[in-house]
Design a protein that fits this description.
119 residues, mainly beta, six-stranded mixed sheet
């Protein structure tokens, strides 16, 4: 079992950058697929980016070219580098584990980290 904690959110102007961190505890982190998800007010939670245990990545269309997901198995952390932020990126961002290839969520949702992008 792995426990995930999100951090790194904040208030940023449009065009700015943030790096989110998803820190894991537990001994099986390197074997876990980890995804970043977000939920804006009044909207359903959606996938932003995912990285498999082998390092393969995929992105939502809204994130392609602006966001980069990466992982450091030594630090048991997954990062989401977000550049060229837009007001529509405002949301609470969560990380979680998922299964391949169907993307089913396999962990519990944490508190997330708030990202607010001002225009």
């Amino acid at each position: 079992q792995v426990h995930l904690v999100e951090s790194g959110g904040g208030l940023v102007q449009a065009g700015g950058s943030l790096r989110l961190s998803c820190a894991a505890s537990g001994t099986t982190f390197s074997r876990k697929n980890i995804g970043w998800y977000r939920q804006a007010p009044g909207k359903q939670r959606e996938v932003v980016a995912r990285i498999s245990s082998g390092g393969s990545t995929n992105y939502a269309d809204s994130a392609k070219g602006r966001f980069t997901i990466s992982r450091d198995n030594v630090k048991s952390t997954v990062y989401l580098q977000m550049n060229s932020l837009k007001p529509e990126d405002t949301a609470v961002y969560f990380c979680n584990t998922y299964t391949d290839p169907n993307g089913f969520i396999t962990g519990s949702w944490g508190l997330g980290t708030q990202v607010t992008v001002s225009s």
